Amino acid sequence: MTAGSVLVTGGCGYIGSFTALALLQADYKVVIIDNLYNSAPEAINRIETLCGKRPDFYSVDITDEAAIDKVFKEHPDIDSVIHFAALKAVGESGEIPLDYYRVNVYGSLCLLRSMQRNNVTNIVFSSSATVYGDATRFPDMIPIPEHCPLGATNTYGRTKVGVEDMIRDHIKAERNRAKKEGKDESLYNGALLRYFNPAGAHPSGIMGEDPAGVPYNLLPLLAQVAVGKREKLLVFGDDYDSKDGTAIRDYIHILDLAAGHLLALNHLRAHKPGCKAWNLGTGKGSTVFEMIKAFSHAVGRDLPYEVAGRRDGDVLNLTANPTLANEELGWKAQRTLEDACEDLWRWTENNPQGYRQQPPGDLVKR
Ligand code: NAD
Ligand code: WQD
Fold first, then answer.
1. What is the 180 CA–ligand 1 centroid distance (Å)?
2. How much distance in Å is there from the Cα of 241 to the middle of ligand 2?
3. Is the ipTM, as predicted for this complex, more than 0.95?
4. Which of 23, 101, 251, 334 is buried most, with the most CB atoms less than 10 Å from its CB?
C-alpha cells in the first residue's frame, strides 16, 4: 500500500513533531495544523533538517472548523488524521476545566465534523494511560491491559475518555450509514493510542520537548535541575508500596512512541479494524528514584532531590501491558531508559533555551 497524506494536528508539539518526522521518513506527505500555544514553529525546521523534507504548516486553532475545512480543501489527498492538539497539564485541568473541555473535547468534535464533511475517514487519537486512573484497584490488572476498566481521576483524563467515546460512537455511526447507503463501510477507522510516559529526545540532540512555561513532568523537571534552572527535584512521596517507596511509571522513548503512530496508521489503512484502543508502553515500570539515578548517570553527576508529600491524584503504578500493540500493530519499544536519559540530556545541553536558540552548525549536520 502506498503512503498517503496525513493531517497532523498539534504537529509542532513534542509527540506530534516526532511523529511528523517518522511519517515523512516513511514517505507520507504531512500537513500540520497547530496554533503554537505550547510549541514553536522552529520544530518544523528541525524536522526538515533531520529528514530533508518539510511538512506543510498552517497556523490553525483546532476549534476553528472553517479553517480546518480550508486545509482539507487545499489538500484533497489527505485520507487520515493524527490528532495531538490538546491541553495536557493535569493540575491545570482542574483549575480551568472549561478550557480543557473546549480545546480537547469541542476541538475534537470540530475536527471530526470537518473530517466528515471532507470525506477523511481514518483517525489516530492521542489518548493517555491516565484514562485508567488508579488501576491498582484491580490487582490482577498490573501491567494494565486495554480491557482494564477506565476511571479517570482528573479533568484532563475525563476529556480523553470523552473523546475516546466520541470517536468510537462516530466511527460506528459512519460505518452504519455507509452500509445503509451501500458504500464501503470499512473506510472508517480509529486508533485510540493510550500512551504511558513519553521520554527522551532525538539522538542528534536537535529535536526534543520544548514546553512553554513550567514543566509538569518528571524528566523535564530533572533536566532543569541538571542545567541549574531549578535547585532540586521534589520527589512526590516515598511511602508507596513499591521496592523503594516511590511511584512506578512506564517511560517510553519518544522515537518508539512516534513509530507506534506510524504503525497504527498503517494498520488502519491496511486492515481497516474499525475503532480500537492500543497501549503504547514498554511493559517495564521504573520508580522515581530509579529515574533520578538513570538521569544522573547520563548527566555524570548526582542530581539533588528532596522527598516531599505525595502529589494529589498520583497513583502507585501505571505500567502498560503492550501485548496487543506488539501482536496487532507489530510494534515494540526498542529503546531503553538509558537511551531516553542520554538523548534527553544531549538535547538539554545543546538547547538550554529550547527552540528559541538555534543549534550549533555541527549539530545540524550530524
Ligand atoms: P504538546 O503540548 O507538546 O503538543 C500539543 C500541541 O497542540 C502543541 O503544539 C500545541 O501548540 C497544540 N495546541 C494546543 N492547543 C491547540 C489548539 N487550540 N489548536 C491547535 N493546536 C493546539 O504535548 P504533547 O506532549 O506532544 O502531547 C500531544 C498529545 O498527546 C496531547 O493530546 C496529549 O494530551 C497527549 N498525551 C501526552 C502525554 C505526555 O506525557 N506528553 C501522554 C499521553 C498523552
Ligand atoms: C511521573 C512520576 C510523580 C514530578 C502525567 C499525566 C499523564 C501523562 C503523562 C498526558 C510520578 C513523580 C513528578 C516531580 C516527582 N500525560 N514526580 N516529582 O503523573 O505519571 O503522568 O504525564 O497524558 O496523563 O498524568 O507523569 O512525569 O508528572 O510523573 O516525584 O517534580 O514522577 O509523582 O510518580 P505522570 P509525571
1. 37
2. 17
3. yes
4. 23
